[in-house]
Amino acid sequence: MRYLIFVLLISMHCAYSDPVEISGSPYATEGVALPKQLHTQEKTILIDPNEHLWGAYNATGKLIRWGIASAGANWCADIRTACRTKSGTYRIYSLGSSECISSKYPIPTGGAPMPYCMYFNGNEAIHGSDNVTYGNNSHGCVRVNTKDAKWLREYFVERPSTQNHYQGTRVIIRPYQIQDYTSRKLVLPLFIPVDFFKNIVLWLKPKAHHANHLS
């Protein structure tokens, strides 16, 4: 039993360890859990909420830069609803500066920093943050490191204009495919035998030590 619990603890630690950025990141794309090539003829930003990554692809579909991204959470307690980032294909329609802030969060007055915001679907935007984690925990926006947001905003993304026929840079949000345990409480299945918990209690309970006392 002790061996089993030890293995489970080690497995859980490995499963939820943060990714290690490879040498030369964010421009070195070898080994990144994103497609190296997209079938496209225009610049594209790909957001994968399962891998918690974003990728920038040039007009030939080649991955040229990437980074960690935090998409919308399964559940937001403050608004009591799911707030996953909506999957689909969108286009950037509005850009903000380094002073961009939220008009809604935190509830009720807003004011949360959203530097270099890039809106692509209603109130959903890609923006910079100093609190990007390997998990989905936003209210629907896609958080990336501030330095990455600045690069996207100033050197990659295009707003709608006559030059691009009013077609802003394309954004693809992949569907959520796995359970995100970083933003929800772990719920144990109901079919675990009661003896399993009894064994854990017995294993954790201190054993009595008996000593022979001389009189």
Report on this model:
The chain is globular and about 75 Å long. It has a nine-stranded mixed beta sheet, with helices on one face. It is α+β, with helices and mostly antiparallel strands. The chain is 17% helix and 20% strand. Mean pLDDT is 82; it is low at 1-24, 181-191 and 208-215.
Rg: 23 Å
Q: What gross morphology would you assign?
A: globular
Helix content: 10-25%
What is the makeup of the main sheet?
9 strands, mixed
- Strands, count: 9
- What is the helix tally? 3
Span from first to last CA? 40 Å
User: Structural class, judged by helices and strands?
Assistant: alpha+beta
Distinctive features:
215 residues; alpha+beta; 9-stranded mixed β-sheet; 3 helices; 9 strands; 17% helix; globular; disordered N terminus; disordered C terminus
Give the topology.
Layout: H1 2-15, E1 44-48, E2 53-57, E3 63-70, E4 88-91, E5 94-95, E6 118-121, E7 124-129, E8 142-145, H2 146-156, E9 170-173, H3 194-204
Parallel strand pairs: 1-9, 7-8
Antiparallel strand pairs: 1-2, 2-3, 3-8, 4-9, 5-6, 6-7
Quick gist of this model?
This protein is α+β, with helices and mostly antiparallel strands and 215 residues long.
